[in-house]
Design a protein that fits this description.
heterodimer; A: 183 residues; mainly alpha; 6 helices; 74% helix; B: 158 residues; alpha+beta; Porin; 8-stranded antiparallel β-barrel; 3 helices; 8 strands; 28% helix
């Protein structure tokens, strides 16, 4: 296979990953809109309220995500010095833990509440929430592709990170501001 | 290594889907049958038994525009509850003239009300019962059952 052919195959693969991610994002949004909110969802015990659980799980996810951001910079040699060999493993596992910590929160959002647009914060939170899982799926699928242009993974990773950050800003930060730092 | 490269991210995707789906299924299994008509519909669709599903109850819908008022006696006094339904949207105002005052907004679909306060600490669930609305109003950790009767001449007011 010539180099040109390989690049175009990789390009098609990347495009498919983006399309699948977009379908996931739109699918989640439509589902959240159509599904009747149940105002209840199973969650982690030991907190004062369901919102507090969600807030702290989301904050945990953000903590891991910040490590993702830093470790990605290290992996691309942007922090200077030698990158320790464990860095990529740590990057993978912090990412896994981050997204797994976000899942109960997202299920609660989708199952108990759904896609809402009662005010700008809620609308943007709903949009970013759907976007985050879409771009997450895209990023995971892109990681399985070979021969991608070097900027593809950093862009996808960056979008995933900022998706999660905006989800957090429109929910957990708002909770801390209105309710205070409560557990 | 090539195997590994494809395997890791796919494993992550599967883990996320499994965890999300698992929590979702636990939620669905916890739904009480009469409260959730959507579940029973989904179940009857899944079983694919030769028995035709029971005819759906006639759809109750809110009037395009309606106001309801109810009084909820509490230990400290009386909460006055007003609910306004406008198309698919509904707004409610609950006030006891003392320590409770809250606005709630949300949806009014299929004869059901689901409203929240902006800070999500209060909520109102209701359903159309004849002409009136019955349901539960939750403010903070307290909750009360209520019945709110339609206000006659509501159209004139608005």
């Amino acid at each position: 296979m010539s180099i040109e052919n390989r690049t175009s195959t990789a390009g098609v693969g990347a495009a498919i990953a983006v399309v699948i991610g977009a379908c996931v994002a739109v699918g989640l949004g439509v589902f959240g809109k159509v599904h009747d909110p149940q105002f209840f969802s199973i969650n982690v015990a030991g907190f004062s309220s369901g919102l507090a659980v969600k807030t702290w799980m989301a904050t945990l996810a953000i903590g891991f995500a910040l490590f993702q951001f830093g470790s990605a910079f290290a992996m691309y040699g942007l922090l200077g010095g030698r990158t320790p060999r464990w860095m990529s493993t740590a990057h993978v596992w912090s990412g896994r833990l981050a997204v797994l910590a976000s899942v109960p929160v997202a299920v609660h959002c989708l199952y108990a509440l759904g896609f809402e647009a009662t005010d700008a914060r809620v609308l943007f939170h709903s949009l970013f929430g759907c976007f985050f899982y879409g771009v997450f799926v895209t990023k995971m699928l892109l990681l399985t592709r070979k021969g991608l242009r070097p900027w593809v993974i950093p862009i996808a990773g960056g979008l995933t990170f900022f998706g999660l950050v905006f989800v957090w800003l429109t929910s957990a930060l708002w909770f801390f501001e209105t309710t205070g730092i409560t557990f | 290594m090539a195997m590994n490269k494809a395997f890791g991210p796919v494993l992550t995707l599967v883990a996320v889907a499994t965890l999300g789906g698992g929590i979702w299924l636990m939620n669905v299994s916890q739904e009480s049958a009469p409260a959730a008509s959507t579940t029973s519909v989904a179940q009857s669709a899944r079983t694919s038994a030769p028995v035709p599903p029971p005819p759906a109850p006639p759809a109750v819908e809110f009037p395009a525009m309606a106001n309801y008022v109810g009084k909820i006696p509490t230990r400290k006094g009386v909460i006055t509850l007003e609910v306004t339904v406008d198309g698919q949207k509904a707004t409610a105002y609950a006030c006891d003239g003392d320590s409770i005052e809250v606005w709630l907004r949300g949806r009014a679909t299929n004869g059901k009300l689901a409203l929240w306060s902006n800070d999500r600490t209060s909520r109102l669930d209701g359903r159309l019962d004849g002409n009136a609305i019955t349901g539960t109003l939750g403010i903070g950790k307290q909750s009360w059952d209520f019945t709110a009767a339609p206000v006659v001449g509501a159209d004139d007011v608005n």
